[in-house]
Amino acid sequence: MNQLQAMRVFLKVVELKSFSLAGEQLGISRPAVTRSIAMLEEHFNVRLLHRSTHNVSVTEAGEAYVDGVRDVLEKLDEVEAEVNRTVREPKGTLRIAAPTSFSVTDLAPMLADYRRRYPEVRLEVSLLDSHVDMVEGRFDACFVADPRVASATLVSRALSPITPVMVASPDYLSRAGVPGEMADLAGHDLLALAETGRQTLTLATPSGTERMEYEPALAATSSVLVREAALAHMGIAVVPEDLVRDDLSQGRLRRVLTHCAVQTPQRQMSILYSGRRHLSAKVRSFIEFAVAYFRERHHHADMSTPPFAAEPV
């Protein structure tokens, strides 16, 4: 029997002045009570209780021990109660990492909805467009555009597909011309989500899959900057559709080669977190909320999206 349990047994014996009654209330045998008291007395090398056939009383050393034990156990009970409440009820600080582009589109509305439901959770958000180290960054959850970064110790859950589109500003198209087919792109400035070097663009066209290599007029590691460059009339950009949905609907950007589809490796926005066991209430609630939020969002999008029609050029 550990020392904390022995301390609880000691207080119960002092309270009831009986080994037998203490054992009954604690659900242990009288010999177990005796062993607990003996362990404490051996630990301190001093007698804590006087025993007789019909009476139990506290020694001077036992009196000094009672108050200290009571303070320790009361504090421990408070800590355990707080931990249990944290496990049951979402509260505390939740540390999140996300790509900048995700923060521009979907993240803030979702966080606002989450906070309305769980107001005791405080949110700390880091925007990172590079590789995220969850351990080093002490993040509870990370939004990533490439779920392959998950490891044996991390769980990845899909949230939403990332659909690339090719766009440009009306001013740029008016100046440089509107491409009618893939070959026409060779005469245009192309803006790429990439670090450096030559890039490959793959399009699914009515006649099949076509590819071209090109040197970007601008290469950036953030799709937010690529979008801003397109809005600044720098060229034709390939960006996530969600990022430019409002720009397209309000005419700030226009789709290019609407009869083609940009082909990229399958990408989706996912959420990463540590293994499923022993998750705190705040992390578990956030993961489940995020998954449900995007599931509902895409359900409504599927119900409201009309059949595709090419935009006029």
Describe this structure in words.
This protein is α/β, with parallel strands linked by helices and 313 residues long. 44% of the residues lie in helices and 24% in strands. It has ten helices and 15 strands. The strands form four sheets. The protein has a five-stranded mixed sheet, with helices on one face. A five-stranded mixed sheet has the order 11-8-12-7-13. A hairpin with a 2-residue loop joins strand 9 and strand 10 (208-214). Helix 1 crosses helix 2, helix 1 packs across helix 3 and helix 1 packs across helix 4.
Question: Mind sketching the topology for me?
Answer:
Elements: H1 3-16, H2 19-26, H3 30-44, E1 49-51, E2 56-58, H4 60-88, E3 92-98, H5 100-117, E4 121-127, H6 134-137, E5 141-144, E6 154-161, E7 164-168, H7 170-176, E8 190-193, E9 199-205, E10 208-214, E11 218-220, H8 223-231, E12 236-240, H9 241-249, E13 254-255, E14 261-262, E15 268-274, H10 281-304
Parallel strand pairs: 3-4, 3-5, 8-11, 8-12
Antiparallel strand pairs: 1-2, 5-15, 6-15, 7-12, 7-13, 9-10, 9-14
List its salient traits:
disordered C terminus, single chain, 24% strand, 313 residues
- The average pLDDT value, as a whole number, equals 84
Q: Order of strands in the sheet with the most strands?
A: 4-3-5-15-6
Note the gap between the termini: 81 Å
Helix content: 40-55%
List low-pLDDT spans: 305-313
Order of helices and strands: HHHEEHEHEHEEEHEEEEHEHEEEH
Number of strands: 15
Query: Beta-strand level of the residues, as a percent range?
Result: 15-25%
**Number of continuous helical runs:** 10
Structural class from helices and strands? alpha/beta
Biggest beta sheet summary: 5 strands, mixed
Instruction: Round the Cα radius of gyration to an integer and report it.
Output: 32 Å
- Overall 3D geometry? rod-shaped
